[in-house]
Amino acid sequence: MTGFADLGYARVDTDREARQGLPEVVYAPGKQPAEITGIVTELLARSTGPVLVTRLDADAAAQVGVPGGSYHETARLLVWRPAPPRPFRVCIATAGTADWPVAAEAEAVCTAIGLTTHVVRDVGVAGLHRLLAVREELAGADAVIVVAGMEGALASAVGGLVACPVVAVPTSTGYGAALDGVTALLAMLASCAAGLTVVNIDSGFGAAMAAHRLAHTAAGRR
């Protein structure tokens, strides 16, 4: 057993599900629809869990020749065999409406892999009372994903309110000095709310995977 399938243009990691609880996820940019079709076909044949293709536009999704997939346009996510819900609860909080596309990716991925999700929109610190109004919803989660651009302050505010793990996603939302998300990224990394997990700019997918690792590890220890 090599642990991968060599398709010539890709070496599909067929052991990923055994190691991490999910099959390999396909990143669409740079791949032709025929290549995505081949990889997805292999993953469906060699695994039992959900198969995901991320960052896929609608035109390319329509050209992927594998039946049974469900496409989420805002999240740019194509899914086969979504997992049944697990009891691990993820609250996804956005600072502003403009952050929604990134949060939509996090929500769609979490849902596809079986995490129970709840979304709280538009609770940025420019109106702190909006955040305090949903404090109980945040505190009741097993993990919170915070999606924020501008100066990224929402992650610190949430990190100070809840005891559960907080995964912060900086977004490229903001005017000039926001530097396409770099300002929010650095602010989240420098947060005084100790223990934040910070993922890459605009990576709703990365945040969902962080939540999955938390849920997968917790389930394995029960």
TrEMBL record:
Single GO BP term: 'de novo' IMP biosynthetic process
Domain of life: Bacteria
GO MF terms held by the record: hydrolase activity
All residue ranges annotated as the PurE domain in the record: 88-220
One Pfam family of this chain: AIRC
Protein name in UniProt: Nickel pincer cofactor biosynthesis protein LarB
Organism of this sequence: Saccharopolyspora hirsuta
Gene: larB
